[in-house]
Each structure stands twice: as structure tokens, then as C-alpha cells.
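Reminder to self: C-alpha cells first, then the designed residues, so the page reads top to bottom the way the pipeline ran.
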């Protein structure tokens, strides 16, 4: 359905200057959203490509069909890596499976308390699960919790890098790939 919609937009093309203002605005909002956790940055970056294609048509936009596949995959990969970053960090710092699971649960709960919850959630989750279920000592549980914070930070950095890659892909497709 989306493919049909994107293919039939030739007659609805708008002034390219207006299209680029809208596209540029969405790209900037998307990049900001890659830094601010409560703004869905990657979704805005994907939306910029879709809106650009809808406004300028399949030929006028320069956005190929494969770009939507690539941008969609990058968007999903980014979200998954950010979510599991805390769990991987907990494991990497010597935590158990319980600590990794606690970091995942904490990350999920932390989403409700943005932006602080994105770091505190995995920390508290890993720490609590290590104490309650893995029967770890306080120091080992704290180490697992701190590892979850380090992993969450790495996940956020990867999220920002993927956002930049999405913008580069979009611009390369529009200007270089023909």
C-alpha cells in the first residue's frame, strides 16, 4: 500500500523549496530526537524521507524505494541496540542473566521516567535482580548495575551514530544515487 502511494505522487508535487524546508525541518527534529530520549528521532528521520517523496514524487524526490527499506532497518536496529545496551553492559561487567534481565526490565520501566529513567532504570533493575534473584553481594550487584549504565550509554551513542547514518543515506540517495 505504501509503495502504491509513493509511486502515484507525481501529480501532487509541490514547490521544491517548500519540500526542502519541510524535509530539512523533519531531519533537524530527527537529529535532535537522536539525542533527546523522549523525541522519536529515527521515526522523524524516516518520516522526512517519506514526506519528501510524497511532496516531490518518485522521480522528483530522488528517493529510491530501497531507501525506505534501509532507513526502516536502521531505525529498528537502533532501537533494539539502545534497549539491550544496558543488559549487555550488565553482563559485560560480570553480571548474571538475572542482572541482564533486571537491566532490561529497568530500561522498560525507565522509559516512563525519561530522561533520567533511561540510565537509572537499568541501574536499579540490574542491581535489584542481582540482589533478589542471583543472591549477589552488594558490591557485585552494584558493579552489574554500573555496567548496565555503561551499556545504556554505549547504546545511546550508537543510536546517535545510526541517526547520522540515516541522514547521510537519505542525502546520498537524493543527490548521488541515480
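Designed residues (178 positions):
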Amino acid at each position: 500500500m505504501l509503495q502504491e502511494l509513493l509511486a502515484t505522487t507525481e501529480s501532487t508535487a509541490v514547490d521544491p523549496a517548500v519540500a526542502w524546508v519541510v524535509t530539512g525541518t523533519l531531519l533537524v527534529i530527527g537529529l535532535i530526537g537522536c539525542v533527546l530520549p523522549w523525541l522519536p528521532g529515527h521515526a522523524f528521520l524516516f518520516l522526512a524521507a517519506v514526506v519528501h517523496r510524497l511532496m516531490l514524487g518518485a522521480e522528483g524526490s530522488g528517493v529510491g524505494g530501497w531507501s525506505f527499506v534501509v532507513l526502516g532497518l536502521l531505525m529498528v536496529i537502533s532501537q533494539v541496540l539502545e534497549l539491550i545496551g544496558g543488559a549487555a553492559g550488565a553482563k559485560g561487567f560480570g553480571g548474571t542473566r538475572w542482572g541482564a534481565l533486571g537491566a532490561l526490565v529497568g530500561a522498560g520501566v525507565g522509559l516512563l521516567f525519561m530522561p533520567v529513567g533511561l540510565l537509572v532504570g537499568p541501574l536499579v533493575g540490574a542491581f535489584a535482580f542481582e540482589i533478589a534473584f542471583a543472591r549477589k553481594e552488594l558490591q557485585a550487584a552494584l558493579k552489574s548495575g554500573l555496567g548496565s549504565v555503561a551499556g545504556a550509554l554505549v547504546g545511546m551513542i550508537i543510536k546517535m551514530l545510526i541517526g547520522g547514518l540515516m541522514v547521510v543515506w537519505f542525502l546520498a540517495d537524493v543527490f548521488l544515487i541515480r
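The mean pLDDT is 88.
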